[in-house]
Specification:
The complex is a heterodimer.
Chain A: H1 2-9, H2 12-40, H3 52-64, H4 69-99, H5 101-115, H6 123-130, H7 134-158, H8 162-170, H9 175-212, H10 218-227, H11 231-259
Chain B: H1 18-22, E1 26-39, E2 42-55, E3 59-63, H2 70-77, E4 85-90, E5 93-94, E6 102-105, H3 117-121, H4 123-127, H5 136-145, H6 161-173, E7 179-183, H7 191-208, E8 211-216, H8 219-225, E9 228-232, E10 239-244, H9 259-277
Helix pairs in contact in B: 5-6, 8-9
Chain lengths: 277, 278
Amino acid sequence: MRWFGLAQATSPAVVEFLKDYGARTFTFVAVLLAWDQTVRWGLVSQNLVPLPWAVAKALWYGYVGGTLWPHFFETASETLLGFLLGSAVAAVMGAAVAEFRTLDRFIYPYVVALQSMPKVALAPLLIVWCGFGLLSKVVLVALICFFPMFVNVVAGLRSARPELIDLYTAFSAGRWQVFLDVKLPSALPSIFGGLQISLVLALLGAVVGEFVASQTGLGSLIQAASLNFDVPVMFACMVTLAVMGAAASLFMRALQHRLLFWNGHADEDPAKNNPAG
Amino acid sequence: MTKLLPAAAIDVPAAGASDRQSGGRRQLVIDRLTVEYRSRRGALKAIDDLTLDIAEGQFVAVLGPSGCGKSTLLKIVSGLLKPSAGTVFLDDKPVTRPRPDVGIVFQQPTLLPWKTILGNVLVPIRALRQPEADHRDKAMELLRLVGLEAFAGHYPHELSGGMQQRTGIARALIHQPRLLLMDEPFAALDAMTRERMSIELQAIWMETRKAVLFITHSIQEAVFLADKIVVLSERPAHVIEVLDVDLPRPRAGDVVSNPRFAAMCAHLRDFFQIGSAK
C-alpha cells in the first residue's frame, strides 16, 4: 500500500524516470548475474572469461593502485588530440571546398575516393614516419576523423536554403556574412552528425595504432595482457574503453542538444502543434 | 469547350486601361523583358518580351500557370538575376544589381530557425549591417501590424505555418522598401489559413500602401487582393491580359459572392484555357 501511495504522490515524469532507470539497471544486473553464474558453474573456463568480481578487482587495482592511469591518459590524449586535429582540418578544408567551386573540382573527387580506403592500413607506415610515441597515433586518429567530418561539413554548408542566401544577397551582404549568418548555422546539425561518427572512430584509431606499436596506452596494455593470458586486465581495459566511448558520445549529444535547440523540431509539422494560426 | 461568358458580355475593363484608375506615378516599370537560360538542351526562353508596370501604392497580381517563369521575373526585379534583354526600372532607375529597397516574401517562410521571431524580422537590418537596436521599435510595430507582438521572443518552430509566413511579411517590410515582392506567399498554407491570410494581407497593405508585385496561380486570390491583374502565358512568359479590379475596399470574405467578383474569376479562368490551348 505504501508503494501505491508513493506512485500516486509523485508526478508522472518522475514515475517515467524511475521506470526508465529501473529497466536499465535490471538489464545490467541480469547480464552480470548470468555472466557470473555461467563462469561459476564452469560452463566457460575462468582462464578465458574472468568472473565479474575479478574484473572489478583488476579495475580497482588499476585505478586505485594507479597502474592503469598512465595508459588511460595516453589513449585519451591520442583520441582527443587526433579528434581535434582531424576535425579542425576537415572543417577548414570542407568549408573551402563548399565555398569555392574550383577547389571542389580539384579536391573533392579524391577525398571521396580516399574515403573508402581503410585508414588503419596506414598505421604501420605512420609508425615508420612518426615514431612509436604519441604523434603517430594522433596522426592516425586525425586521418580517420577527417573523412566523415569533411563530407558532413561540405554537405551541411550546401544544405542552406537558397532563398535565405538570396535574401542576404539582395541586401548586399558579403560572402563572409552569408557564411556566418546562414550557411554555418544551417550546417551545424550535419557537422554534429560528423563529429559523432568521428568521435567513435577516433577511439578505434587510437587503439589500433597502439596495437601496431606502442609502450603505453590501453591498446598496448590489452596486447601485453594477452601475451600473459591476463584476462581480467584485458576486460578492465575494455570496460574503460567502453565507458570512454559512451561518455564522449553522451557529452557530444548534450552539447548538440544545447547548441541546436531548434533542430529537435525540424521534422515536426509547424501547422499541427500550434496555437491559432 | 465553349466559352460560357464571352469577355464582351461582362463589364470588364479592357487591357491598357490600368493607368486610368490608379493615376499615380509609375513606380516599377518592366520594359520588354526577355530571359534566356542556357541549358544542356540548348537555349531555353523563360520570359519573352514582357512589359508591365506598377503605380505608386498599387497592388498588382501576376497570374500564370505553374512554371511559367514567375519566380524568374521576381529574381530579376529584385536584381538577383540579369535579364538577357530589356530593363527593369524602379523609381525611374534601372535595376542592375541587388537592391535593398525591395522587400521579398517567399513561398516558404524561410525563417532562420535559430533566431527568435523578432530576430528574424531584423535579419534585413543585419544583412545591411545597420545597428539592430535602432530598428527594434520598428520591428515590434510591424509585429503588432501582423498580429504577432506576443510572439516576439518565440522561435519559428513554436509558430504555425500562417504565423511564420506573417513573420516573413513583417521581415520584408522592416527596411521600409519601396516595393514588396511576394512569390506565391500563401501557396504552402492550407485553404482556411490561406483565406484568412488574404484578408490580413489586404489590411496590412491598406495600412502601409506599398506597391506590391504579388505572384500567384490562384485566380480567386488575385481578384480578391489586386488592383490590377496581369495574366502571363505559359513558358516563355509574356503578358496576355491586363485586368483592372475595381471592387471597393476593404474587400471582405463575402466579396466572393459578389457577381462582379464571380464574373472576373470566370473571365480569367476562361482566358487561361484559351492561353493553354494555343
